[in-house]
Amino acid sequence: MPRPLDFLLTNDDGIHAPGLVALRSAFESRTRTAVAAPASQRSAVGHSITIHHPILCDSVPLGGRRHGFAVDGTPADCVKLALCELLPAPPRFVLSGINFGANLGVNVFYSGTVAAAMEAAFAGIPSFAISLCTKENPRWKDAAVIARKVVEEFAPFVEGTPVCLNVNIPNIPAAKIRGVRIALQAPVAWEDSFHRRQDPRGRTYFWMDGDQVHRKRKGVAPHEVTDIEAVLAGYVSLTPLRLSLTCEDTFRKLAKPRRGR
Fold first, then answer.
1. How many of the other CB atoms lie within 10 Å of CB of 167?
2. Using CA atoms, how far apart are residues 44 and 10, in angstroms rounded to an integer?
3. Does residue 195 form part of some domain?
4. What's the domain range around 134?
5. What is the DSSP string of 34-45?
6. Per residue in 31-87, pLDDT tens?
7. How many C-beta atoms surround the C-beta of residue 175 within 10 A?
8. Within a domain: residue 244?
9. C-alpha–C-alpha distance, residues 154 and 202, integer Å
10. Parallel, antiparallel, or unpaired: how do β-strands 127-133 and 164-170 relate?
């Protein structure tokens, strides 16, 4: 049986995106890796998969003798295809990123970066979804240094466990990072807004915009912190995401015997 790779690398920004280049540079020299990523930008596609047309896949050069698989599909498609067809054996871990932009709070439901990592967890492979929290002037080298340290520290705790660790890195010099906080997923919504415009033919169209809202929480245990709070305080946030979306509190309420039944 072929020896398993250490890491499968993927993302949602495209196979040539600088975040993936930085992630590769942090891991390829000392580990056995493979790359399977979207052929083009596929951000915010969530956990969508391709079922209505064929998925094209090409081997593309990544520098030196390295090649990767450019998949004409979604991030989840990339992981599915890699595990089923492209790799000789499943990897020990899947690393998805480094995403250009935060994936905090409810963003995990929209994120292609997180979806690729969750797809690995569906298949029983532990994964890391890694994001850089900025909209401009990304510090890729610093983020890559931090990403490697986080993976090396926490991979032993999750190896063999079907879980996704969602990692968000502040966009500051690596030396100024205050540490890693194990954080809760912030229970806050994305505050949507739309820019209304007209095209040259007078038709109305919209550009979606918005931002994450941050509100102080009350009655929270001192040791508990959300992913948004951790990043704002200069920490890397690390949130373990599970496969089940069952609301256990509501489940227990609904499962109680009801009068007249």
1. 29
2. 15
3. no
4. 7-185+220-253
5. EEEEESS--TT-
6. 899 999 999 999 999 999 999 999 999 999 998 889 999 999 999 999 999 999 999
7. 7
8. yes
9. 54
10. parallel
- For residue 240, how many C-alpha atoms fall within 13 Å in the half-sphere facing its CB? 10
> What's the average model confidence in pLDDT over 85-102?
96
Indicate whether 148 belongs to any domain. Answer: yes
Phi, psi of 193 (to 5 degrees): -150, 155
Give the sheet arrangement for strand 57-63, strand by strand. 57-63, 66-71, 33-38, 7-10, 93-100, 127-133, 164-170, 236-241, 180-182
- The C-alpha atoms of residue 115 and residue 75 are separated, in whole angstroms, by 7
**φ and ψ at 172, to 5 degrees?**
-135, 165
**Neighbouring C-beta atoms of residue 91, cutoff 10 Å:** 23
CB 145 within 8 A of CB 26: yes
pLDDT, average across residues 124-130: 98
Is the Cβ–Cβ distance between 188 and 105 less than 8 Å? yes
Residue with tokens 């227990």: 252
| Structural domains of the chain, count | 1
Residue 215 falls inside a structural domain: no
Please say whether the beta carbons of 85 and 56 come within 8 A. no
Contacts of 166 (CB under 8 A, 6+ apart): 103, 108, 114, 117, 129, 131, 185, 227, 237, 238, 239, 240, 241
